[in-house]
Amino acid sequence: MMGSTLFKAKHELWLRITFISFAVNNPSVKSKLYEFSQMEFRHLKWIAQSLFENNLPYNYERDPKFNIESNSFFTLLHTTIDKIKALHLEYDDTPLSQRMVHDENYILLVLKSYLNELSDEPIHAFNRSRQWPDASLGSSEIDALTLFLFEELYKEYELIMIYFYRQIRASTPLQVTHFQDLIDESQFHLRSFGEMMAKMGILALPRVLHPRTYQIENMEKFLQDGIIEEENAKEECRKLSSAISDEKLSRFFEFINFQESYHIEIMKKLLKEI
Amino acid sequence: MTRNLRYNNQMENNLNQEIIEHLMHPHNYGPLENPTGVGVGHSEQSGEFVIFYIATNEGILDNVGYATNGCHDTVVLGSMFTEMIKGESLEYAQSAAIKLREKVALGPIKQQACAQMVLTAFEAAQIHEQQKQEGIAEELYAIDIEMECEVEV
Question: Could you tell me the pTM of the whole model?
Fold first, then answer.
């Protein structure tokens, strides 16, 4: 029987593979790991749906010792392999569990092939260097970028998990679609910001979400507040874009800023559906 | 209390390694298993909150914890404040809270709001503990605050 323990382990595995994909250097490994992380996210959704349909509780708690940091590519792989193997002991014999086992057996195969075919290499994502390797930025620009990334990485994770929670409880197909759009948007931003933090050596897991954060009783108010918050986020992107002298980086934040505009439109559509 | 002043100046001028560590790994983050008091500082306007957990024994804060959906200043202040008062007497913690409030009063409004959120939650946790001792069985004690912290880049 699926339960909250499995949900918790899966939540951690999704985060682990996602953040390792941000941390590793090899572009093809990075891309493959991110694909796997999205697979794990779908598993997580199916588990949450099953738990919700069976009136079983689950939450977003994580093990207090849960950590992904390492300065070795191979250590990251070995830890992930061990975690997947341990997870398989939690599965039952339902079609969903069988699907997850098959997916993860393939993931294990690929991770083990990396150990056999690639060389270990140092991981710089957690070294706290706080340097932007693609351009020369002043210390105030680095500070502004650092604070923005910490703030927004957490926010995107928070939004993914709030929308995820509400999507499971959605009452119309259109609500499900809008929540999925919002999740996809935040997944993209989480990936963008996570990759940037890894480049700067400040990649860290987002803080654990307290149930007060995602157990939203008044969704209408949440969306109305969220629209204001997105407007503020747009302003922060605009400010950061102006504060950063590097043209390429500045354009990236303008691009994110513009994305937020349609994000707000999706939230307005959802508001009409609530 | 020099840590608070240092934090204030650092956030104003530049980030240093200590702040980065608090951002990457906030100390005492998350709930306690058996708290003697649970308090919330909450802004109705923004939806931001800090929830503060205390576990006291004969007037000593054996353990403390906090969680927030607030900004990075709130995270760092919560991390530093909990680190400062953990293992200390309630009396010490209360005086530390007053001094922290005085220190951040010299800084930007945003930091004052963040500090108020953390300190209000701590105050609420103490009220909750007192209520429990008096037999009033609430899950937690919440205090609404009017200030809100907004992200500044």
Answer: 0.93
